[in-house]
């Protein structure tokens, strides 16, 4: 027990001694650390003080440099302002000196003008006095002459005038006789000179119409869509437009054949719309063709307006403007009728100006001379185109000279004005130029028109189209008036009529088409 106590007491004493020794060692280390920290702090403070002094010196130097720089800039601004002020003062002094010199000049000029005005007034007074003296002397001389000749001044004047009239009349008659003889000798030469000068001044391109148009397509796949199932689309297009559509091996092209330019244009524009839209079927074809026909009618009016504006013709009746526009789609012996009429109008204007006539009136008559070639109705085709054009011109208020020129340009009525022979000559000039017309083409077109007219001579015929270059006549009849039996009889009668009345090579196939439709609308 005692040993245990001693051991515990020894351990406790040892622990206390160890604790004391540790505390002493820790205190010594702490004092060393404190001394080192103090040394480091003092060194840092010294370094900070040195660095702060350097920064302070740098900032003071920068501030001095900035001050010097601002001072230099301020001095420059002051110097520039002083210079500007000096320049301004110099300019003001120059202006003042200039104004003073101008004032002195003006003062001198005013003095000179006043002296000249006084001189002119004096001269006017002198002239007035001299004029009064002259009038008095003239009057006294006239009185003396009247006393000597025993005639008054008026009687002397009348006798002098009568004697001068007689002399002038005899001189004028002699002059007229000489000019008449000279005109007889030079009339033919002068006429040729005027015509040649007129032709040289009017240069136009040839415009020969053909009977076919080419419709270009992007690919040959479109041809199948245009033909349609079992050819129903192409038959619908031909029936609606009256144009023969030729689809052959020609790559990316379809041929439109018809002697009527309006039909060909309607067919071409309709095909373009159908191909662009993509919907090609009989109902859509009829709708597009109707819209295109209305568009062509509007275009005809626009063409007529542009033509009269280009030629400087004013006050033309709207119906005559429409007829002028329709000439674009008509031809005369292959020559485009509108181009021909424009050319005749220009030739007439130049020739009328050369002869001292009214060129505007001549242009008007030249443009309208062939309007009878674009009749509205089949009945009008029996009247000669010159007479028909004259009747229309009279109907729409044209002047008598213009009407006579239109009616007489083919010698069907008597010429009553100088415009009439001018129109006739210019028409011949335009049509007689080499390459302007093709006689064979016109006879071919006339044969196609005769074929269609024969069909229109029968009752119940709604439309008639000559296709296949005149080898086929396609007739569309009204289903209400023509039955199936009558349609067969009508086909035979038309073929017999063609065989009897016309001369043609080969055969002509007559096809009569009768169609019945039932249409209802679901709402």
Could you provide a short overview of the structure?
With 523 residues, the protein is mainly alpha-helical. Helix content is 70%, strand content 7%.
What layout of secondary structure does this protein have?
Blueprint: H1 2-149, H2 153-201, E1 212-216, H3 221-227, H4 232-241, E2 244-246, E3 253-257, H5 261-277, H6 282-311, H7 318-326, E4 331-332, E5 335-336, H8 337-354, H9 359-368, H10 385-395, H11 400-408, H12 419-432, H13 439-456, E6 461-467, E7 472-477, H14 484-501, E8 509-514
Parallel strand pairs: 7-8
Antiparallel strand pairs: 1-3, 2-3, 4-5, 6-7
Helix pairs in contact: 2-8, 4-6, 5-6, 6-7, 8-9, 8-12, 9-11, 9-12, 10-11, 11-12
Gap between N and C termini: 128 Å
Count of beta strands: 8
Task: Give the number of helices.
Answer: 14
Beta content? 5-15%
User: Rg from C-alpha positions?
Assistant: 56 Å
Poorly predicted tracts of residues: none
SSE series: HHEHHEEHHHEEHHHHHHEEHE
Strand order of the largest sheet: 1-3-2
Shape verdict: flat
Helix percentage: over 70%
Mean pLDDT: 80
Description:
The chain has 14 helices and eight strands. The chain has 523 residues and is mainly alpha-helical. It has a three-stranded antiparallel β-sheet, with helices on one face. α9 packs across α11.
Can you give keywords for this protein?
three-stranded antiparallel β-sheet; mainly alpha; three-stranded mixed β-sheet; 523 residues; flat; 14 helices
